[in-house]
Amino acid sequence: xxxxxxxxxxxxxxxxxxxxxxxxxxxxxxxxxxxxxxxxxxxxxxxxxxxxxxxxxxxxxxxxxxxxxxxxxxxxxxxxxxxxxxxxxxxxxxxxxxxxxxxxxxxxxxxxxxxxxxxxxxxxxxxxxxxxxxxxxxxxxxxxxxxxxxxxxxxxxxxxxxxxxxxxxxxxxxxxxxxxxxxxxxxxxxxxxxxxxxxxxxxxxxxxxxxxxxxxxxxxxxxxxxxxxxxxx
Length: 233
Description:
Blueprint: E1 17-22, H1 24-33, E2 35-40, H2 54-66, H3 69-77, E3 81-88, H4 94-100, E4 107-112, H5 113-119, E5 127-132, E6 134-136, E7 154-156, E8 164-170, E9 181-185, H6 188-191, E10 194-197, H7 203-215, E11 221-224
Parallel strand pairs: 6-7, 10-11
Antiparallel strand pairs: 1-3, 1-4, 2-3, 2-9, 3-8, 4-10, 5-8
């Protein structure tokens, strides 16, 4: 179930459009399992993921001199947090297609902040939050650490183009062990407003996606990519 936290920032406009770009196998896994995969926070490619900026780390090191378990606690907490990343954008992003899909194949899920909130299933018995990522200078800027979610809501400025919003799951209060991640119960029809198929995909691929969605008894709208033009000069 979606929780609120006064320290986690999120736009109040629930109609804000968000996207997730993924390949067909991950999309099928979502539809067939009716569960959303979330990556463990220390398994991301970005080596700074879930870590602190330099000014913050210096302060933590000072605190850790008297309390060596302090830093260890933060490191182990990363193993208890799973994240699903979404991209805020009113429109499709050509850059996101390039980054997250390969071989002119893949899909984009279009949703909204409100839909994400409503899609999180109430039977998920761990803390779940949705928050926007802040992009800062890790050399100079301070990340407050008065809240256990803050390391997961800051990234380096060079990632600003991602305009990321995150579903964050914390299993610290449960007996769950996260390996690569966690699959959470999700209301698929609430989560997905529309599906966009890769703009450079071939017709057989588009037809395959349409057929698979139909066979799995989903009826959300499947759109042709806005980046695909019928006009050739």
